[in-house]
Amino acid sequence: MNAIREAVESSDVLLTVGSGGVGKTTVAASIALRAAMEGQGSLVCTIDPARRLANSLGLDALGNAEMEIAKATFDAAGLQPKAVMRAMMLDMKRTWDDLIVRHAPADKRDKILANRFYQSLSTALAGSQEYVAMEKLWELRTQRDYPLIVLDTPPTAHALDFLDAPNRLLDFMDNDAAKWLLTPALAAGKFSLKLFNLGGSYVTKTISRFTGTETLQQLADFMLNISGMNEGFKERARQTRALLEADSTSFVLVTGPMPERLDETVHFHTLLKQNKMKVAAIVVNRVHAPVPPSLWEEVARLPPEKQRRFEETLKENESQARQDARGVERLREACEGTPLVLVPRFEHDVHELKGLNALSRWLWGEERLEVGAAAR
Amino acid sequence: MLRSTPCHVNVTFAVVEELNDKRLIVVTGKGGVGKTTIAAALAVQSAREGKRTLVCEVNTRERISQLLGKPEVGAEVTALDENLWAVDVRPQEAMREYALMLLKFESVYNAVFENRVVRYFLRFIPSLQELVLLGKILFHLKEKRPDGSWRFDRIIIDAPATGHAITFFSVPQVIIDTVPPGAMSSDAAWMRDFLIDRATTAVVLVSLPEEMPVNETLELHDALTTRVKMHPRLVVLNGFISRRFEAGDGDGVWAGLADVVRSHETRAQMSVDSQQKLASLKLPLITVPRLNVPDFDRKAIDAVAQRFGGAR
User: Fold this and answer.
1) A58, A303, B117, B148: which could form a disulfide with A177 (CB 3.0–4.6 Å)?
2) DSSP letters spanning B148-187
3) Is B279 on the interface with A (CB under 8 A)?
4) What is the number of alpha carbons within 13 Å of residue B46 lying toward its C-beta?
């Protein structure tokens, strides 16, 4: 049986990972759509979908909520799904705010929300998006009851940052240094920190030269205020990690066949494996199909004045197909044991439901692209 | 700022006047559109035209040295060619350099910045990492040689892709808004001013003749100009496919061949449509034809570089 179909049927969480620009969001949406078509209710959670894909998923004006894709939308595409498909777009700031509102002690809530560090943490801080995606996944998995959640991971330059994100936050809260700074203040019930008790110490003075004193004070306030949430964060980070490693969670690695993507993909694959994550398949998207020999035979029969233009085109197509096929072979060798699913390059971008459904036929192995011969 | 150069060398980006007198060129676009290729080609052309050029990759898997057929350069500024240097800017080294600049003495750095508690604190200063990455790159713009001329006439940044580029270049403003006055925020202010200065800094947007990349280019342009206040000055449409077949070529031929014609025509049409759509940005646009080469190497980069210079 086809690897993706199998993973979808046996998983309740599926994550698409890969670097930007490889069609990760489209693959995620296509998998969720197909699951719904087959009767497995699904939710696709996207981070930053292209506008037209968002439109066709009905996500044009929405924040952080899961929206059901209307029957009328499916009817217009000529599709009759057997189960409900939902889609959502992750809103970073709102997920953070929800988190604070839900978990912070009542007397700290407003202080946290108003803190300048919190505000930049929740909107601009690099790595924050990865953390929020993991928090959202945990929430969706534990608070709702979707048979399948497909999570499109943020298009990071370092696609596995999300694995690290919960740990990084934990580190922030649970670091020895943090304890050293916070403990005396907490014990004394005071809003002052050891760092500032050091007063004019050399270290404090030097850091202040770097950041300004007020910065340290604000950061300290922030840490003090969220320190009560420590245990909750820790527990969820642990559970999220367990969720990612669970048997019912699968990863689909999405890539293109271009050489510059391959090294990254092999690297991601190794990391996922090292982290005990289950990689169901590698989707190689936008592969140029080989040129069948019959085309060359036909070209030979053309009148000479036409021949040259056809030959030139076939040669180009052949060289691209060969390059892609070599990439696929390299990937196959480097990621032995993980099935590859090849998707051909389409002439137009896929963003309508109909196109997503057609794409799923390739993902499900109902249509297949053979490139082996082109590599030679 | 023109310096004397040998008379046979054209001192300008012949095609791209908009980039001519710029000291900082930021190359960005959707992931997978060929930003690195274009940044490398611009750098080669810039160096060829006699400008001392530094091309920077930002905390990524280094590719430019390889594209230019050279060994990996790493986090040290390394000469690749006449007038051409490269560096892969990485956070840890950049942080050290930045701290040393402020603190002047290595022993002080070691005493303070190797301190466990301090390191902990620094990690959570919002966007400090991005600030030092950007800070290191822009710092090289201030460096001078003993004769008073710039160490680098021009820096080209192979910037992160769309969303990350916006975050990255917003960092100085974020710091200005979050961090109270101090050395860090005044550095951030200097960086912000340099980035938004139309006279010194230009953004090059790279796109592909496909629907999503083109749409994203338009959105990126909007975000960069309104939110970050930077100035895109050039669009590069990479992978352009020109029309080849003539009317009637697809008629009366076997269906498989008719498909070959149709597919090529579709892609050529998409190239033209993309060009027209991008024209709405009212910026100069350079098309770079799709190159059919088995491996993208120095020769291919040189060919792309030609598009940005040479006699026209």
Assistant:
1) B117
2) SSBS-SEEEEEPPPHHHHHHHHHHHHHHHHHSPSSHHHHH
3) no
4) 28
Report d(CA B113, CA B107) in Å as an integer.
10
Q: What is the 3-state secondary structure (H, E, C) of A210-258?
A: HHCHHHHHHHHHHHHHHHHHHHHHHHHHHHHHHHHHCCCEEEEEEECCC
Go through chain B and tell me how many residues it has.
Answer: 312
Hey, which residues does B86 pair with through a beta bridge?
Answer: B55, B78
Contact residues, chain A, for B218 at CB < 8 Å: none
Extract the tokens encoding A322: 């060969």
Mean pLDDT of A133-160: 83
H helices within chain A, ranges in order?
3-10, 24-37, 51-56, 71-76, 92-103, 106-114, 116-123, 128-143, 161-174, 176-188, 194-197, 202-211, 213-226, 230-245, 259-274, 293-300, 304-334, 353-363, 372-375
Could you give the ipTM of this predicted complex?
A: 0.77
Find tokens 């599926």 and name the residue. A14
Q: Each residue of B250-288: pLDDT tens digit?
A: 888 888 999 999 999 999 999 999 999 999 999 999 999
Chain A partners of B266 at a C-beta cutoff of 8 Å? 347-348
Q: Does A60 touch chain B (CB under 8 A)?
A: no
β-strand partners of B88 = B57
Q: Hey, which residues 257-316 in chain A have their CB within 8 Å of chain B?
A: 258-261, 263-264, 267, 292, 294-295, 298-299, 302, 306, 309-310, 312-316
d(CA A77, CA B65): 48
Q: Do A21 and B116 touch (CB under 8 A)?
A: no
Distance, CA of A247 to CA of A282 (rounded, Å): 18
**A248 CA: distance to closest CA in chain B (Å):** 31
Q: Comparing C-alpha atoms, which of A89, A105, A239, A199 is closest to residue A154?
A: A89
- Claim: this prediction has a pTM higher than 0.80: yes
Q: Report the alpha-carbon distance of residue B312 to residue B310 in Å, rounded.
A: 6
**Residue B222 pLDDT > 80, yes or no?**
yes
Give the one of B61, B121, B264 whose C-beta lies nearest to A313's C-beta: B264
